[in-house]
Structure formats: structure tokens, C-alpha cells
From TrEMBL:
InterPro entries: Goodbye_dom. This is Fungal STAND N-terminal Goodbye domain-containing protein. It comes from the Eukaryota. Residues 52-175 form the Fungal STAND N-terminal Goodbye domain. It comes from Russula ochroleuca. Gene3D superfamilies: 1.20.5.170, 1.20.5.2280.
Length: 405
């Protein structure tokens, strides 16, 4: 179980023998922790209590409460690794160190802060801690650097410790983007507790030891070496778990890709079926097109017949024109006859008037008697013409032919 393993781990890290008197192996805080239900990794163990106990152990060792330290409040407002680095670098200004030492220390700070900040985000989102474990650790780094200001001889040894820690964190840098599992969160908590333990041990030694000879033994001390070995083991385990998680995610993606491939194959089959149906529709459309072509041919034949009828109508129209011309010619001839008839009528009217004048004028009658023979012939001819024409003109003129006869 996660909580049980962390409880044992805290006992090993913090409640160690620091003097002839041993620290209690089961303080009240740990008894409280042991009385809690022990959930599985997936049920969000009580990391808040675990870190609280770790901070109490740090306070016992260094006589400092990190949460109440001004650096903790200052770091709590930082929302990025660069902002945290700016605060930490302020603590470095008091160190009397060479340029090489400054470069070594900066080389350790950058990756360590980035990784711990990422881990803190994972813990904050996963278990909802009331404070940032990483920022608390950064406050411990600041306190340690402040303690090292007065002990110039210890600065090189301190940088050696930091560099060894930096080597451990480098192997985790590539895995900070891997979504953590409950097991990985368990390891992350152990790593942060181990870092806090190392900072506490180093800070305590800085405050107690003032001679160069004693400080040179810092790296060789069993407690520091044990803590560094544990940190090495934890970071290695975390890297392996992250690799396994990445491999698992890769296999999951591969399975999903295969599932998608199967679905695509099914879609391809359906598309092939649709293609077959479209081919059938195309065949039907081709049949309709043939029928339309046949109808077009029939329409063309009808059009030809209509053209023939149109030609015949044109011939009839031409013949009508000829008939019309003949009718016009007949009309002209009728007009000519009409004019001639009018002339004859006018002559007949003049002859009738002349006869009436002879009847009422005796002198004229006597003068004409001398020419009896000639006149008689003329009258005969004239009477003959009159008798021939007048009957034809009788209906139109209303002339009575009885008098002439």
C-alpha cells in the first residue's frame, strides 16, 4: 500500500540517530497516519499528512520552520521556474565563490527547479495539496545557501552535493511530460522527501561545523551518502516507471490505430458497395440515354416531315399567288368591259334624246326627210344595233325598249 510504504520511508529518512539519544520511532503524527485507512494508489493517499510529517522532521533537524520562513512566502507567489530561479539567485549573491563554482551551482539549479516544479504540478493536480512541495523544497535550498554564506570552506562541498543530485534529476527531465500514474506519484513524493532530507542534513552540518576539517567530511558522512544513494535509487525507479508508462501508452495507441484501421477497412467495403450501386445507376442512365437518343431520332423524322409539309404549303402559297394574279387580270378585263359598256350606254342615251327632239321639232323632221334613203339605212343599222345592245342594258339602265320597237 502506498501510505504504508511512505510511512516506513519517512521513518528511515528522518527519524535517524542524531545523538546518543534516539528520536521516537513512532511519533504522534505517524501514529495518526497509521490510524488512517490505507487506500490504494488510485484512491489519492494522504500526501498532505506525509509532507507535514516530513517538514516536522526537517524542523527538528534544522530548528527552522520552512513554511514560516520568509523565503517560503516569497516563493509561494512565483508561478514559473524562472521566477523561482530569480529568488534563489538572490541568495547566491552573498556567497563568496569563484566563477566556476557559480556556473556549477547554476547548472544544478536550472534542471532541478524545472523538474521539481513539474512534479509539484502533478502532485497539486493529482492530490490537491494545500501547499506546493516543490516551493517548500526551494525554500530549503535558499535556507541552505544562506547558511553556507558564513562557511566559505563548505561551499565547494555543498556544490558537490548539488551536482550529484543534479545527475539524478537529469534522467527524469525527459519524463516530466508523461502523465503520472498513482505509482509514479508515489515515487515522486519519495523523491521530494529525500531531497528535503538531504537539504536538512546539509543545513544542520553547516550550522554546527565551522572548521574546514570537519566540513570536508560532509560528503563522506554516512547520512548524506545514504540519502544520496536513496535519491539515486528513486530517480532510477521513476525513470523506469515513466518508460513503462510510455511503452504502455504506445501500445494503447497502437491498439487504437489498429481499431481505426479496421474501421477504415469497413468503411472501404461500404464505399465499394456504394461504388457498385453507382455503377448500376450508371448503366440505367445509359439505357435512358439510349431511349432519349431514339426519341431524338423520331423527333428528327417528324421535323423532316414538317419540312416537307412546309414546302407543300409554300407551293400552295405560290399557286395562290398565281390565282390571285389571274383574278387581278380578270378584274382588269372586267373593268375594261365596264368602261366600254359605259361608253355604249352614253351613246344610247344620246340617240334617245335625238329622237325625242325630232318628235317635238317638225322643222328638223322635214330637213331630214330629204335624206330619206340614207337615213333609213342608218336607222336600220342603228335600230339593229339598238335592238342588240339595249336588251343587255335594260336591267342596269331601266330603259324601256318598247318605244324603240
Amino acid at each position: 500500500m502506498v501510505v504504508k510504504s511512505l510511512r516506513d520511508y519517512i521513518e528511515q529518512c528522518f527519524y535517524i540517530q542524531e545523538s546518543p539519544h534516539h528520536l521516537p520511532t513512532t511519533p504522534s503524527s505517524l501514529q495518526s497516519l497509521m490510524s488512517h485507512p490505507q487506500p490504494t494508489p488510485a484512491s489519492s493517499p494522504d500526501f498532505q499528512l506525509i509532507f507535514t510529517n516530513a517538514l516536522k522532521a526537517y524542523e527538528k533537524r534544522t530548528k527552522r520552520d520552512l513554511l514560516a520562513h520568509p523565503l517560503a512566502a516569497q516563493l509561494q507567489d512565483c508561478d514559473s521556474p524562472s521566477a523561482i530561479l530569480a529568488v534563489i539567485h538572490q541568495q547566491l549573491e552573498g556567497l563568496h565563490q569563484s566563477q566556476r563554482a557559480d556556473e556549477r551551482l547554476t547548472k544544478w539549479l536550472d534542471p532541478t527547479i524545472n523538474i521539481l516544479f513539474a512534479f509539484s504540478g502533478a502532485l497539486g493536480e493529482g492530490v490537491g495539496l494545500a501547499f506546493s512541495p516543490a516551493k517548500t523544497i526551494f525554500a530549503g535550498v535558499g535556507v541552505l545557501l544562506s547558511a553556507a554564506i558564513d562557511v566559505r570552506a563548505s561551499q565547494e562541498a555543498l556544490i558537490d552535493v548539488f551536482e550529484r543530485m543534479e545527475n539524478f534529476f537529469q534522467r527524469l527531465e525527459i519524463y516530466t511530460e508523461v502523465p503520472p500514474t498513482p505509482e509514479m506519484i508515489d515515487i515522486i513524493v519519495k523523491i521530494m522527501i529525500e531531497v528535503l532530507s538531504i537539504l536538512g542534513i546539509a543545513t544542520k552540518e553547516m550550522k554546527q561545523g565551522r572548521t574546514k576539517k570537519y566540513l570536508k567530511k560532509l560528503i563522506g558522512r554516512t547520512d548524506i551518502e545514504d540519502a544520496l544513494k536513496k535519491l539515486d535509487k528513486l530517480t532510477t525507479e521513476e525513470a523506469r516507471m515513466a518508460t513503462a508508462q510510455t511503452l504502455k501508452a504506445t501500445h494503447t495507441v497502437d491498439d487504437r490505430v489498429r481499431g481505426v484501421d479496421n474501421r477504415v477497412a469497413g468503411v472501404e467495403d461500404k464505399v465499394a458497395g456504394v461504388d457498385d450501386r453507382v455503377a448500376g445507376v450508371d448503366d440505367r442512365v445509359a439505357g435512358v440515354d439510349d431511349k432519349v437518343a431514339a426519341v431524338g431520332n423520331r423527333v428528327a423524322a417528324v421535323d423532316d416531315k414538317v419540312a416537307v409539309v412546309d414546302d407543300r404549303v409554300a407551293g400552295v402559297d405560290h399557286r395562290l399567288g398565281s390565282v390571285e394574279a389571274r383574278v387581278a387580270s380578270v378584274d382588269d378585263k372586267v373593268k375594261s368591259v365596264d368602261e366600254k359598256v359605259a361608253v355604249v350606254i352614253d351613246g344610247a342615251q344620246l340617240s334617245s334624246v335625238s329622237q325625242q327632239e325630232n318628235i317635238f321639232n317638225p322643222d328638223v323632221s322635214r330637213r331630214k326627210r330629204g335624206k330619206a334613203s340614207h337615213t333609213t339605212d342608218c336607222k336600220r343599222h342603228g335600230s339593229s344595233k339598238t335592238f342588240v345592245i339595249l336588251p343587255l342594258l335594260k336591267p342596269a339602265l331601266g330603259v324601256h325598249t318598247q318605244a324603240s320597237s
